[in-house]
């Protein structure tokens, strides 16, 4: 008998260390050694690199710095971290004994007349209290797996906040690039408008001198009016870009309009980017980290579901003192009780096992979501590398094209003034210049947006101010 009594606590201790369900392991997927247009050199911690400073634009730097503390999506993500922390604390506390105290005081008296009550009864004061404790012994790791799941969910919330920061950087810099592009297009249109008006005036003088026809004047007027028609649409697009920036900073739509209307050159990044190797994305991309943490949470939930198949033991007890006092006498009594209770699942028509299957399917889905996130990240980097490389070539070619067409326009105008060429040559030259300038501005915009997309694709810059959200070990 003594051997059995000694072995029982030992068996309980061994059972309490049992944890059912699979343990989470870092997911794996095959990745290329290098990007098709990248090097085989791994990158450093790009999350700390403020890549937007390559544009050398103080206004943009100020918008980014301000917006990281004001962007509403980032602030919402931070609130979700607070919620996940509370859920983790709740899951952690469930594994500890629960202690409850209650107290009650009651005053009673019965009054009556006639045969019902022979005399007024005494006033009775009854005071009672209960101290209760309960503890579900975690024999198969139900609470420990729940805590693992809550911890992984908390990690995912931190990673999601980093995703919100990275998304903000992408959105605000792209919107700024677009705003400056439309300003450049407006400036080009106004410059071309001035040139075409000069041509119109020259043509009218030529008409008065008999060296031009009414057709020449009408053609010049049409080119002036078509240029005037371009400007309002460009102004609309500029204002919409500014309104988008204001929204990203959590401000009313027109808050930044006056400041950004002052104008600046188009953002142009001359700094190169080391995209690293595909494996670096798993470390640097917060969306991949969030997907991996979601997988860890889903894996832990399998253990929670499996633990429900097995018996559970709850230790509970209570102490209840009671004090009764009347004018004639008083007394007290104390009752207590303590003991274990066993819950043994026997038949549930397959509900628990069906729940396990559902959790396993959720874990497989989470793995596939992680894999898809990784492959999408690799694809985004590949696309951005190609875009930056090819667009840079386009910008170089268009820069030369603009110079050539501007020289051709200058020569055509001088020749027309001397009567050596027709107005058609001048109008064609003006169209070529306007088209080349617009194409160059668009290519510069595409190059800047490609530079943004590349840095965002490799997970760059969201922790440049030391705000990288990595939850501490618990």
TrEMBL record:
InterPro entries given in the database record: MdtP/NodT-like, OMP_efflux
4Fe-4S among keywords: no
Topology in membrane: Lipid-anchor
Alphabetic keyword roster: Lipoprotein, Membrane, Palmitate, Signal, Transmembrane, Transmembrane beta strand
One Pfam family hit: OEP
A single GO cellular-component term on record: plasma membrane
PROSITE patterns on file: PROKAR_LIPOPROTEIN
Cellular compartment(s): Cell membrane
The keyword Aminoacyl-tRNA synthetase belongs to this UniProt entry's keyword annotation: no
Family label: Belongs to the outer membrane factor (OMF) (TC 1.B.17) family.
Protein name in UniProt: Efflux transporter outer membrane subunit
Native source species: Agrobacterium albertimagni
């Amino acid at each position: 008998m003594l051997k059995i009594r000694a072995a029982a606590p030992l068996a309980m201790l061994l059972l309490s260390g049992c944890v059912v369900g699979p343990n989470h392991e870092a997911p794996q997927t095959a990745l290329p050694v290098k990007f098709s247009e990248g090097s085989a050199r791994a990158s450093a911690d790009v999350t700390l690199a403020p890549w937007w400073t390559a544009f050398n634009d103080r206004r943009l730097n100020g918008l980014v710095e301000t917006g990281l503390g004001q962007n509403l999506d980032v602030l919402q993500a931070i609130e979700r971290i607070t919620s996940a922390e509370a859920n983790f604390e709740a899951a952690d506390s469930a594994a500890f004994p629960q202690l409850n105290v209650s107290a009650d005081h009651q005053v009673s008296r019965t009054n009556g007349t006639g045969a019902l009550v022979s005399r007024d009864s005494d006033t009775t004061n009854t005071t009672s209290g209960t101290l209760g404790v309960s503890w579900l012994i975690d024999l198969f790791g139900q609470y420990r797996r729940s805590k693992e799941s809550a911890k992984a969910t908390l990690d995912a919330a931190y990673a999601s906040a980093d995703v919100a920061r990275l998304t903000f950087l992408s959105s605000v810099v792209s919107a700024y690039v677009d705003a400056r592009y439309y300003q450049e297009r407006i400036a080009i249109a106004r410059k071309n408008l001035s040139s075409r008006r000069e041509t119109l005036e020259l043509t009218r003088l030529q008409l008065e001198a008999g060296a031009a026809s009414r057709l020449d004047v009408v053609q010049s007027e049409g080119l002036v009016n078509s240029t005037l028609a371009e400007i309002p649409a460009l102004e609309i697009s500029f204002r919409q870009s500014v309104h988008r920036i204001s929204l990203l900073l959590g401000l009313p739509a027109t808050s930044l309009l006056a400041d950004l209307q002052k104008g600046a050159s188009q953002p142009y990044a001359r700094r190169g980017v080391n995209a690293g190797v595909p494996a670096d994305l798993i470390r640097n991309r917060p969306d991949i980290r969030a997907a991996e943490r979601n997988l860890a949470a889903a894996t832990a939930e399998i253990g929670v579901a499996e633990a429900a198949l097995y018996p559970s033991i709850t230790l509970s007890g209570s102490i209840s003192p009671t004090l009764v006092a009347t004018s004639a006498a008083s007394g007290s009594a104390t009752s207590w009780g303590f003991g274990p209770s066993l819950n043994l699942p026997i038949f549930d028509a397959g509900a628990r096992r069906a729940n396990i299957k559902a959790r396993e399917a959720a874990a497989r889905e989470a793995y596939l979501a992680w894999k898809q996130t990784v492959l999408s990240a690799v694809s985004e980097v590949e696309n951005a590398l190609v875009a930056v490389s090819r667009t840079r070539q386009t910008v170089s070619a268009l820069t030369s094209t603009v110079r050539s067409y501007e020289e051709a326009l200058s020569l055509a105008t001088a020749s027309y003034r001397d009567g050596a060429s027709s107005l058609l040559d001048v109008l064609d030259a003006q169209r070529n210049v306007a088209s080349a300038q617009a194409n160059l501005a668009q290519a510069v915009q595409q190059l800047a947006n490609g530079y943004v997309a590349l840095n965002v694709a490799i997970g760059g810059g969201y922790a440049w101010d030391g705000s990288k959200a990595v939850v501490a070990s618990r």
